[in-house]
Amino acid sequence: MSAGWFRRRFLPGGPLPAPRPPRPRTSPVPYRRPRFLRGSGSCSSTADSPRRPEARPVRCPARGRALPWNAGYAEIINAEKSEFNEDQAACGKLCIRRCEFGTEEDQEWLTLCPEEFLTGHYWALFDGHGGPAAAILAANTLHSCLRQQLEAIVEGMVTTQPPMHLSGRCVCPSDPQFVEEKGIRTEDLVIGALESAFQECDEVIGRELEASGQVGGCTALVAVSLQGKLYVANAGDSRAILVRRDEVRPLSSEFTPETERQRIQQLAFVYPELLAGEFTRLEFPRRLKGDDLGQKVLFRDHHMSGWSYKCVEKSDLKYPLIHGQGRQARLLGTLAVSRGLGDHQLRVLDTDIQLKPFLLSVPQVTVLDVDQLELQEEDVVIMATDGLWDVLSNEQVARLVRSFLPGNREDPHRFSELAQMLIHSTQGKDGSLTGEGQVSYDDISVFVIPLNSQHQGSSSH
Amino acid sequence: MSAGWFRRRFLPGGPLPAPRPPRPRTSPVPYRRPRFLRGSGSCSSTADSPRRPEARPVRCPARGRALPWNAGYAEIINAEKSEFNEDQAACGKLCIRRCEFGTEEDQEWLTLCPEEFLTGHYWALFDGHGGPAAAILAANTLHSCLRQQLEAIVEGMVTTQPPMHLSGRCVCPSDPQFVEEKGIRTEDLVIGALESAFQECDEVIGRELEASGQVGGCTALVAVSLQGKLYVANAGDSRAILVRRDEVRPLSSEFTPETERQRIQQLAFVYPELLAGEFTRLEFPRRLKGDDLGQKVLFRDHHMSGWSYKCVEKSDLKYPLIHGQGRQARLLGTLAVSRGLGDHQLRVLDTDIQLKPFLLSVPQVTVLDVDQLELQEEDVVIMATDGLWDVLSNEQVARLVRSFLPGNREDPHRFSELAQMLIHSTQGKDGSLTGEGQVSYDDISVFVIPLNSQHQGSSSH
Q1: Distance CA B348, CA B367 (A)
Q2: Lowest CB count within 10 Å: A209, B9, B238, B346, which one?
Q3: Distance between CA atoms of B266 and A3, rounded to whole angstroms?
């Protein structure tokens, strides 16, 4: 992506973007639930069809259907907010083949050996909005994008230190020293591959949705185990945490209009055209009105962490670029997340103002060095969409995990049981567990990844 | 500052910026050392004149000259890198007057009562480059900018919670609730005032240097005590740390082309014109050359935290936007810091490529809640320019502090003695203390602020 591309795509003077999706050329993306739920008991009647309003069961994989590392999974559809469950999930083995270089003579030709070279595992949650299509495409596509990205650099991943040149050729004798001084490690290549895979997947979704005349977007939270490390890549407001006997550690942070306020205001400062004169980029404690004119009120601009006062002018009465508090905060009055995949066609209602320029598809990646952890029997990673975290804090989830696992050591299905129990705790059925007994009406999907069973679990796709 | 202003000022098509400073209209900023060094013993002969090469003494305030909170100070000039000591320092009492509102009838008129209302204390270090002028102007100006900013909002600072309207008028009954929900506290107003003061000071320096036909810039590190809190605002590569018996806590982080790589690359992505086709915004482990053409080499772009490989094209052989490692890292081959004041005229040697658009004058502010600390006898904040930290780690400084203070409790001048001792430790005179016995050839200035003597110290300006 170049700045020129950005300007042509989003700014006035470029070719006019189509205000509505063009006539479909391919068939729409069919709705489905995750593949690994097929044959699960509680869901036979609704396996691949939309929710029936009268029933809102918690669904998990069938007993005997093992996910990678014997991970657990459960999901629940929202309380009639949308016809479909807009969450999607995927997991499986990640098989990375080696691209071997030929002999010196034909170095510019790569000989692709189809044999498996490195293997990892992959778990992903996608929380859709504006329809289920983007999340389904992401669940179908992102792991392939990641595999391709990793295969393109696998030669660099298997040496102690990534080589300056992927070919291993040393143009400068001190090349390894330059790489050393920059502190570039193998995990930086995996981080780079995850960043590129998210962006590529976003482009695929944009093309597919345009071709099928559909719309929508989704968040993406991905965990990848590779070479003894767990990489957690997040774009959106899902969350992953590590729960151990004596520790709760966040493995991701949320990207919302509030947490990315400065980046978003900065873009509106650089390209005011993006607001089309309809929004103000300034933040105020509430939307201003006529009575505030001429008063000095609290405000914040893109370069400010603190707050100051400004004299209210007429342009300050416009609708704010970022409006609302906490879970209610919206970008351009429309979207609750600031990173994710899709949303290429999304516009502010009844205008031509686009959301996409303000959204990032690139994830933030954190690395958990599992091999260094001195793993204990019940160390798990909990990944869940925002519906869970709206109602349960990290500490509450950790308490539920610690209260459930020790008493259920013999049950091979216990990690899905745990996922199911976590979801039940958000439905007001176990009021005592959540303290305030809050209820979530959102779609919720949960993976429970047991770190200690990584050598026992089988894989499925 | 508006985006339009930015485009007119820095992008082609706007009025041509003057490539060289215009003919001076005012007299140049005279060189001087900090005012509080006047009359100090070790410096009587060189008090306000440039360094004499034969002597490189460590200077500190005269015994009996108390700085705010009985703080200590010491400085040393660089080893013939420049004619002048380009560091500057300032400290003093901050007297904030109240702007009282009149009666209901003439609410739009402010009655300025000249009486002192709130008092704080202020310590500041400025590390100049390209000449001493910017640092001297900053030392003369920044505290006034800050006082003005604070006086403009002092009505909002003295209530438990900042009011939505500075006048205290409640336009909406739930205004206090909106402010509460945004989590806006009094300290956010002080942070906002510091951010605005740095920017205003930057503008003053720009005007003054243009008028006097001088050039240069400086970093700025400021500590302000106010209402029981210590605010540390930093723009540049100086550093402040808190040293306690059992704790070393960084109170600032450094802003260099390396630490701000993504912001700087992002700007070059948005406005490629700023590089005038002479630089590449991409980061490589080393500068590329002809032999690298067509090879796949490690690189990083603005949206990447990780690394990836790209096939080298001709444009990748250009000089990198950010080049070099660690202390050697330079922005556009020219500048080692990415935030600070001044540098309005700075250009890449023999080109019209400006540095200023890539520099931020806004500081990062951290807040130390001194009243909550359970202060111990020897809790101090150490502020110093980068020359100290090039040679001593936070932990080494903490060890030196802890080894010095307990044995010198009776000496009222001991905090300046400590500052002096820290500087001596960078001169290879106490090799055993620094471990590797590294030597600093840079200007160094150090404040030692004893947190426990805040009610004992007198103030001076």
Answers
A1: 36
A2: B9
A3: 10
- pTM value is 0.90
Residue A102 has pLDDT above 70, yes or no: no
Name the DSSP letter for residue B293.
Answer: T
List, for residues A209-238, the tens digit of each pLDDT value.
999 999 999 999 999 999 999 999 999 999
- Phi-psi map region of A373: left, alpha, beta (phi>0 left; psi -120 to 50 alpha): alpha
Q: Is the pLDDT score of B50 beyond 70?
A: no
CA A236/CA A252 separation, integer angstroms: 10
User: Testing the interface with A: which of B8, B107, B164 to mutate, by most A Cβ within 10 A?
Assistant: B164
Phi and psi torsions of A137, nearest 5° = -60, -40
Distance CA A331, CA A328 (A): 10
What H or E segment, with its residue span, contains residue B417?
helix B414-424
Tell me the Ramachandran region of residue A56: left when phi exceeds 0, alpha when psi lies from -120 to 50, beta otherwise. Answer: beta
- Please name the residue that has the structure tokens 């009011």: B163
Contact: A305, B195; criterion CB under 8 Å: yes
Please work out, in degrees rounded to the nearest 5, the angle formed at the alpha carbon of residue B247 by the alpha carbons of B185 and B90: 65
Q: How far apart are CA B379 and CA B286, in angstroms?
A: 43
DSSP string covering B321-373, please?
SEESSGGG-EETTTBS-SB-EE-TT-B-TTS--BSGGG-B-PPEEEEE-GGGS
> Would you call A171 and B295 a contact, using CB atoms and an 8 Å cutoff?
yes
- DSSP-assigned states of every residue in A402-434: HHHGGGGTT-TTHHHHHHHHHHHTTBTTTHHHH
Strand, coil or helix: B254: coil
What's the pLDDT tens digit per position in B373-390?
A: 999 989 999 999 999 999
Could you list the beta-strand ranges (E) of B62-109: 72-76, 87-101
- pLDDT interval class at A158 (50, 70, 90): confident
CB-CB neighbors (< 8 A) of B296 in chain A:
165-167
Comparing alpha-carbon positions, the chain B residue that sits nearest to A301 is B192
d(CA B126, CA B341): 9
Distance from CA of B384 to the nearest CA of A (A): 24
Distances (CA, A) of A315 to A285, A311, A319, B324: 16, 11, 9, 45
The answer to whether the CB of B229 falls within 8 A of the CB of B370 is yes
Instruction: Between A115 and A269, name the one with better pLDDT.
Output: A269
- Do A334 and A346 form a contact (C-beta atoms < 8 A)? yes
Q: Give the total residue count for chain A.
A: 461
**Pick from B172, B192, B270: CB nearest A308:** B192
Q: Return all residues near B427 (Cβ < 8 A) that are at least 6 apart.
A: B76, B439, B440
The reply to whether ipTM tops 0.95 is no
Q: Is the pLDDT of residue B48 over 80?
A: no
Residue A435's pLDDT is: 52
Q: What band does B429 get if pLDDT is binned at 50, 70 and 90?
A: low
For residue A268, give every residue at least 6 positions away whose Cβ sits within 8 Å of its Cβ, in sequence order, or none: A274, A275, A279, A281, A302, A321, A358
Looking at the complex, report in whole angstroms how far the Cα of residue A175 sits from the nearest Cα belonging to chain B: 8
CB B388 within 8 A of CB B394: no
Residue of B nearest to A303 (CA): B362
Report the pLDDT averaged over residues A64-90. Answer: 92
Contacts of A300 in chain B (CB under 8 A): 192
* Residue of chain B whose Cα is closest to the Cα of A294: B108
How many CB contacts within 8 angstroms connect chain A with chain B?
A: 165
R_g (Cα) of chain B, nearest Å: 24
